[in-house]
Amino acid sequence: MRFREYFSKMKSSTRGGPPRVSKEEILWSWIGAFLGIAAVAWVSHLFFDGLDMSLMIGSFGASAVLLYGAVRSPLAQPRNLIGGHILSAVIGVLCWKLLSQHLWLAESLAVATSIAVMHATRTLHPPGGATALIAVIGSPEIHQLGFLYVLIPATIGPLILLAVALLVNNIPSSRRYPEFWF
Prior knowledge:
Layout: H1 3-8, H2 23-48, H3 59-69, H4 78-99, H5 103-121, H6 127-137, H7 140-145, H8 148-151, H9 156-168
Helix pairs in contact: 2-3, 2-9, 3-6, 3-9, 4-5, 4-6, 5-6
């Protein structure tokens, strides 16, 4: 591929920007995200306060964007949400345990391997890459969890987000969730 041809691929398409979203869609996205994150935070407060554990990790914010703001996206479906977080958490913990003395390598392998495994298992969920990275760069409390990190927070948190998505995303007649389970 020639130099000019390579860089010409980086021009924007002629399709224009993303489509506008209705005020109703914006409201339901806000309601879903608020209730989903609030539910995870509430359960975390109720059961994990004082235990040096938290059910909340940053990648759940990105999951909320997909679950409540892009409900029809293949990346937002239950299989992707749950599978993407679980597989990525396992990979992240493994990378930390095996390569913590080479942090740059553990970080890059965790994210890259998570992407490859999610692709191979048809569970691609972009926040999963962050879940893997958090297992590597997280606090000492995260590292002390070891493989418990896969369950708390990387399985229970997404299950709570999913329960809220099933309830909220099916209230308005303009939404339907999920598009597929498996």
